[in-house]
Specification:
Length: about 220
């Protein structure tokens, strides 16, 4: 299921209380796509984490449909993420001791038994589509681009309605980056997923319905 986003009076602070990000208002319709750009340190990753319910010291509202992700407990936020959100982190956060399929299907470890096979085969299909052989060595020796593609497969394995990606094309060569940009845009346009992508990549940003520019912890 895909959900609209409605952010109001969002403020994210550092653990010491310094404001890192202030965003008075952001609206995105269900199934729409948004690019976020801005210089290093502008607050792009901070915003993406707040939208995923991963940030602490947050005030205001981050509403996905009827759920305000600022209010609930950590466990409730995790449950919402598991059901609705696919995340591609800036540093991928893969398990080096596991292979690509085990990484991409990591959600199967804590999913109910009757969903595990479906998750594994979805992860395997995504890997295949991204040109990664699922029966290979552990990801420890994978290149940056290969790790990135495993992270994309993992984000999509549970078929989330919302996809949040932090610099998803940064480690890819031009051709692979263009292919991924096209795939992400198609997921949103045809798959109806709400897509939010932090990027410096003009090709990727061009494919988004809208682009938000951040500077110094707020809209530019
Ligand atoms: N826990 C924290 N405590 C203090 N400052 C923080 C904390 N987390 C992030 N910051 C600061 O907040 C600012 C925004 O960080 P953020 O990671 O959101 O930037 P970014 O726009 O994603 O940059 P990049 O393009 O380099 O990834 C940075 O100056 C960063 O140092
Ligand atoms: Mg960042």
């Amino acid at each position: 299921m895909t959900l609209p986003l409605h952010v109001t009076d969002l403020m994210v602070r550092s653990p010491r209380g310094a404001p890192l990000l202030v965003l008075p208002h952001l609206r995105l319709g269900a199934g729409q796509s948004l690019g976020i750009r801005g210089p290093s340190g502008a607050g792009k990753t901070t915003l993406l984490h707040a939208l995923a319910g991963l940030a602490d010291h947050v005030s205001g509202q981050v509403r996905w449909g009827e759920t305000n992700l600022v209010a609930p407990s950590m466990a409730q936020r995790a449950a919402f993420r598991a059901r609705h959100i696919g995340l591609i982190f800036q540093d991928f956060l893969l398990f080096d001791e596991l292979g690509p399929l085990a990484n991409a299907a990591i959600a199967a470890l804590y999913a109910p038994k009757n969903q595990r096979d479906r998750l594994r085969s979805a992860a395997e299909q995504r890997l295949q589509g991204l040109g990664i052989n699922s029966e290979t060595r552990t990801v420890a020796s994978f290149s940056g681009g290969e790790r990135q593609r495993v992270a994309v497969a993992r984000a999509l394995a549970h078929d989330p309605g919302i996809l949040l990606a932090d610099e998803p094309t940064a480690s890819l060569d031009r051709e692979a980056a263009d292919r991924l940009a096209q795939d992400l845009a198609t997921l949103s346009r045809e798959g109806g997923k709400t897509l939010i992508v932090v990027s410096h990549d003009a090709v990727l940003l061009d494919r988004m319905d809208r682009v938000l520019t951040l500077r110094d912890g707020g809209p530019a």
